[in-house]
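Review form for a predicted model. The reviewer records the input and the model, then writes brief findings.
Reviewer: anonymous (R2)
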Amino acid sequence: MAQKLFTSLAAAALLAVSACSEGDPVAPESDTADTETSVNVEVDPNGEDPNIWLEEVEGERALDWVRAQNDRTLGHLQATDLYNELQAEAEAIVNASERIPYGSVRDGMVYNFWQDADNVRGLWRRTSLESYATEEPEWETIINFDELAAEEDANWVYKGASCHNDGESERWTCMVSLSDGGKDAAEMREFDLTTLTWVEDGFYIPEAKSGTAWVDYDTMLIATDWGGDGSTLTESGYPTEVRRWTRGTPLEEAETIFTGDRTDVGIWPFTLELADGTQLEGVTEADTFFTSKYFVFPNGGTEALELPLPAKSSIVGSQWDLVFVTLQEDWTVEHEGEELNFSSGSLVAINAAMLEDGELGYVWEVFAPNERQSIESVALANEALLIAINDNVSGQVLTAIPDRLTGEWTTSPLDLPENGALGIVFANQHEDTVFINYEGFLTPDTLMSYNAADGEITELKSLPGRFDTEGLVVEQFEAESTDGTMIPYFIVHREDIPLDGTTPTLLYGYGGFQISMTPSYSALRGKLWLERGGAYVLANIRGGGEFGPAWHEAGLKTERQIVYDDFIAVAEDLIDRGVTSSDHLGIQGGSNGGLLMGVMLTQRPDLWDAVVVQVPLLDMLRYHLLLAGASWVDEYGSPDIPEEREWLEQMSPYHNFDQDADYPTPFFMTSTKDDRVHPGHARKMAYLFDQADMPFYYYENIDGGHSAAANLQEAARRVALEVTYLSERLMD
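Model under review:
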């Protein structure tokens, strides 16, 4: 919700670059152990990968290469006066005390995780709702993670807490997740919010990609790496078993209630609160990344009852004897001779009796978006249902109310700011207080409180402007893609830019997994890029969720070229309008967006002069064998299916590298600790540039996980590196 930061941990010492002209990367030094392969750096898609040694995450040879590239890249970029200026500005922003302390509400207390220059790893703290509403809340520290890391000589990164109240003694206990260096895998420890101490002999889960759900004070459902040897994990690296664990019982003796298949993406527990306040136990079996089955266990037994829901649907909560479900596919229901039709992207309500007997009963349509809308999230507060939507990539929050006689639902928008992004930061069905955040490209974040009991909206906190917006404007345009579809995009720029193609422009894209790209306020982007005359463009290409499931599904598997065509169309539209030119156009994206960058680098190297490739997928013939990659075959296609492999061979940036091409100088960024997207992707692609003696930058954060981040100082350093690179490429 707050500023979007691309983050990283600093690497090694600087090297002298006196022999290199400013604006050009230091020439890469070839790996002398592989000089015999430098004549031909093409990768045979049907043969053995000669660079597979770079997939050894902690391999000595691989890390030696990584450190050499880090030293070379940092030695050049950090030696410039521009970097020092940008890094100082970035640190001032991330360490500023005027930041919104976003939090969750429990029994009248607001809980917040806070990092600053003095608390690098952060504090978990709390204050009363009344104090929270003041300019200077009185915070009570719950856990100091810097002190904990020092005491235990560990590289702890806080990954959140799952808390439970037993409803009688008002005692709150939490499972606190601690990650080594920022990995997705974390260990979990039980913490008592009443005594502010770790629970002696309490629940404890060793490091794994675990999932938990509280049933009551003495019982939880848990999915984890049982035994720690990976035998109970899916091919994607997530749990296959859910067990019921009671306090005082050794973890390995927890009762198994559900076992999935190794070919599943993963198995995760959940609970739904029934009308009498009890928690109904449940399990989600994710057959694929986008399809699931839902099972419940009435009366706390071990017999699983499958719920009659469509495969592409998501349970979002229960209240008023209803279960609320979002649909990612069309659904037809037969009820007492009546055919009920619901469109993909809708929110529906189902009688909670389904949870006890598996009979569907009647289904009500709560909200059906039109073709330019999408549901972003659904939240339950005390006696209230809220729906956050995008309407032509502009945020709204709706309240939904049923007619007591007919059961038909009506929705109405809350009176909130327009023409920006609105997100529900916190809501809980036992709390009246709902936190809603608003932000725009040029409008700093504002946190508002909505009271579900009386409908009152109060502005709680807002950020001061962190960069000069005078003379800046935001426009929304559309570019025509190859199939005639109009692709919207936002552009932030100076009002008086000359339309002669000279404006340095950064184009950002993602295009995958039904994730929407919406307006956001970034002080770092504004101060370091926009203030210095750069323009910023956000492309709402297909693959995302801006216009619902259909917008995403248009680019799945072998249809994915349309996603890349959309991005190219936006770039060409910017050039046609005279905003920029290829010499002044840079692009950036991370994770799935990093794959987008790799494809843009290999398919259209003529269109840009800077490419920031962050924590990317790039080897699309081995991605399904690395870390969580197997979970994404429904997005990209499977290399084990001939027709899908044929497409992946055509698209895979690693396999389409051309040593004779005229590539712009790219900047590859990844993290050694990333246990979601393997760092081998970035390593191997950069190594091809290395072996071909082509200029490139490479930086691998030794810590930080998939976000490549562990603290705010590293965030400042990372963004300063990126903007230094972009400035050298696009502003000269």
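Findings: The longest strand covers residues 156-165.
Further findings: Confidence is low (pLDDT under 50) at residues 1-40.
Recommendation: see findings above.
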